[in-house]
Amino acid sequence: MERNYGGVIWTNHALERLNQRNITQRDAWATFQHPDQSRYAKTKGTWIFYKTYGNEKYEVVGKKNERGEWIIMTVWSRPVYGEERKAVVHVPFWLKILRKIFGVR
């Protein structure tokens, strides 16, 4: 695992947690870059990024340093319970218009 991966700085703590929790750095980075959702954490300036992979929800905690660089501080996962997630199919806008014009569903 790399300390600087994907244009982000990874703390030793985060790298240790990835290893302990069998989470790939690539999946953690993808969670940070393309989260399903994100929110402010309790600590000032810190964010939590969430992404679900199958039946696991990954959570990545990061913040910007004084130079504006993102630092990943820790990573964990937790099981997802309840209904299976349904795949969301993105329909391009132009296709929606054509369907509306021609009455096709």
From TrEMBL:
UniProt-recorded name of the protein: DUF4258 domain-containing protein
Protein's organism: Candidatus Woesebacteria bacterium RIFOXYB1_FULL_38_16
Lineage, highest ranks first: Bacteria, Candidatus Woeseibacteriota
